[in-house]
Amino acid sequence: MIIFIADVRGKGLVVYDSSVKSMCRVESDYMIPTKKVVSISNKKFPYDGGVFGTVTLYDELYYVTTPGTIIYKIKIESLLKCTNKKKTNELTKVAIKIPSDSAQIASAGHSIFYGDADGNAILGTNVFKKSGANTIKLAQNDEKLQGISSLKTPYYWNKLIGLSDRYHLFALGIANLKDINFRYFEMDLAEIQKKMNSIS
């Protein structure tokens, strides 16, 4: 079993391989956010983040830094070799350019799912299709999808599930405690997969 642990404060990844009982830390310049301000629903606040969301898809690890508008990918095999920072930089590739900050990401089939923080939306990108025409907006709701803080694809329930919250309003000191500030949502993963696979 291979476990990847995002080190938000340390701006890196911890890689554990149980088959050989080894653990190491991997760093890359691409694991450091290029800015220290996050934007959710076009409201900005300071946030010193790092690697926030990670998923595996076949033989690659995909990750996003928060704040950040790029999902990167790197071969799992190279991470298991515990490459140094310079080599990790060389092996890291841009997988998806996203419209605004995203926190968590999820995967299923050939697709990566992520939030569009300023658009209050959930997007899906089929990474096996030609870039530029391989992304679909799965849901958008200005009221209910502010700040998507969690996305998961539990195969047992065949759902895309997640949480949205209004943390940004708390960070800015303008939250109304009488409002609904946290929401749970779920979507039919089989239907999503049909849409994602229909991308030409």
Automatic annotation (TrEMBL):
GO terms for cellular component: extracellular region. Transmembrane segments: none annotated. Keywords: Secreted, Signal. The keyword Secreted applies. It is found in: Secreted. Belongs to the major royal jelly protein family. This is Major royal jelly protein 1.
